[in-house]
Design goal:
The chain has one domain (3-173): Arp2/3 complex 21 kDa subunit ARPC3, CATH 1.10.1760. By secondary structure, it is mainly alpha-helical. A hairpin with a 4-residue loop joins strand 1 (25-26) and strand 2 (31-32). The chain is built from seven helices and two strands. The protein has a two-stranded antiparallel ribbon. InterPro entries: BioY (IPR003784). It is found in: Cell membrane. It comes from Blastococcus jejuensis.
């Protein structure tokens, strides 16, 4: 991995940490935070591999106890709580956002960006987060789906649009994801 790649990974782990400074809104066992915007941005700007590594680095920072979650949270205990599934899903979500972004790179626009962010940053995160929430809290499925997904949908869709808008601008001015290389015929 190049030094530039390491810098991007560290930068997006830091951006996700800074988004933790936005106060969380507690409406159930899982708070509404701005940090899922970091998941979407990392995938849509860095691509699959670097986006995954940025969020993995962020989780390492959480695990060693740095107060990078909203309200100054951090430490291994958060990986045994109601939010554990969501946290664990973040690198996977960033990977999926990045993978879709890379696949449509030649025609990437706002619509593709919103789709990539919705699939990776919302569907993947909920698909992992809600079952873990149910298992940890013993909530019935209806409550786990309500408090673990439904109440987040409007805000997460807004984050998907914001991340896609930023990614489109970054792609135009300073693309971090390289353009796919065409195979060169052997001479």
């Amino acid at each position: 991995m190049k030094t530039k790649d390491l810098a991007y990974v560290a930068l997006f782990a830091a951006i996700t940490a800074v988004l933790g400074l936005v106060p969380a809104v507690q409406i159930g066992p899982v708070p509404i935070t701005a940090q899922t915007l970091g998941v979407m941005l990392a995938g849509s700007i860095l691509g699959a591999r670097r986006g995954f590594l940025a969020l993995l680095l962020f989780l390492v920072l959480v695990a060693i106890g740095l107060p990078v979650l909203p309200g100054g949270g951090g430490g291994l205990a958060v990986f045994a709580g109601a939010t554990a599934g969501y946290l664990i899903s973040w690198p996977i979500g960033a990977f999926v956002v990045g993978l879709i972004t890379e696949r449509v790179w030649a025609r990437y626009n706002l619509a593709w960006g919103v789709l990539a962010n919705a699939v990776g940053g919302i569907v993947v995160v909920y698909a992992i987060g809600v079952p873990v929430l149910k298992a940890v809290t013993a909530l019935p499925w209806t409550e786990a789906l309500w408090f673990g997904a439904a109440v987040f949908i409007p805000g997460d869709l807004l984050k998907a649009v914001i991340a896609a808008t930023i990614a489109v601008q970054v792609r135009r001015s300073y693309p971090v994801i390289e353009r796919p290389q065409r195979a060169v015929a052997a001479r």
